[in-house]
């Protein structure tokens, strides 16, 4: 078992939501729980989740590789995902990603040398009216991210580091 007892208890809560013959329905939640704990979803975690749920590892791998919210390689402690889809791009989403890239000295898809921040771009995050938007670690959405708000966010993250 690669995850903590607490993580397996959380997965059990997700499994309880479905009939016994539909355990695979909890696979996305199980992967999310594993990723929150480990920071990313390794091949070993995929096998462990598959065994715990009782489904083929390849089926769990298919889910993990289909959805872009699962990280299949290590990322920084803070993953900043900037929406660059067309509506956000028209409202400075691409400029926001470029600004963060310059501030951090990394390209999109890279992680800072200290391992603190990974910068990624994404498709629509469903907040077009509040663009530019970004997600922190897939859970916290930041809206209307002008340069001042970005500078504040990065300073906060780096001070917590």
From TrEMBL:
Protein name, UniProt field: NADH-quinone oxidoreductase subunit 2
Keyword Metal-binding applies: yes
Catalytic EC class: oxidoreductase
Catalytic activity from the UniProt record: a quinone + NADH + 5 H(+)(in) = a quinol + NAD(+) + 4 H(+)(out)
UniProt keywords, alphabetically: 2Fe-2S, Iron, Iron-sulfur, Metal-binding, Oxidoreductase
Pfam assignment, any one: 2Fe-2S_thioredx
PANTHER family (alphabetical): NADH DEHYDROGENASE [UBIQUINONE] FLAVOPROTEIN 2, MITOCHONDRIAL, NADH DEHYDROGENASE UBIQUINONE FLAVOPROTEIN 2, MITOCHONDRIAL
Cofactor(s) in the UniProt record: [2Fe-2S] cluster
Species per Swiss-Prot/TrEMBL record: Oligella ureolytica
Protein's gene: nqo2_1
């Amino acid at each position: 078992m690669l995850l903590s007892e607490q993580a397996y208890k959380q997965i059990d809560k997700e499994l309880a939501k479905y009939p016994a013959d539909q355990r695979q329905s909890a696979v996305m939640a199980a992967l999310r729980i594993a990723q929150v704990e480990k920071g990313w979803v390794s091949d070993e975690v995929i096998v462990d989740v598959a065994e715990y749920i009782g489904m083929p590892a390849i089926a769990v791998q298919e889910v993990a590789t289909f959805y872009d919210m699962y990280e299949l390689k290590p990322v920084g402690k803070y993953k900043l995902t900037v929406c660059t889809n067309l509506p956000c791009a028209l409202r400075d989403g691409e400029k926001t990603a470029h600004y963060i890239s310059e501030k951090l000295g990394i390209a999109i898809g890279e992680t800072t040398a200290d391992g603190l921040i990974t910068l990624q771009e994404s498709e629509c995050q469903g907040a077009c009216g509040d663009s530019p938007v970004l997600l922190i670690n897939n859970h916290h959405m930041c809206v209307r991210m002008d340069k001042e708000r970005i500078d504040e966010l990065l300073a906060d993250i780096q001070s917590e580091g």
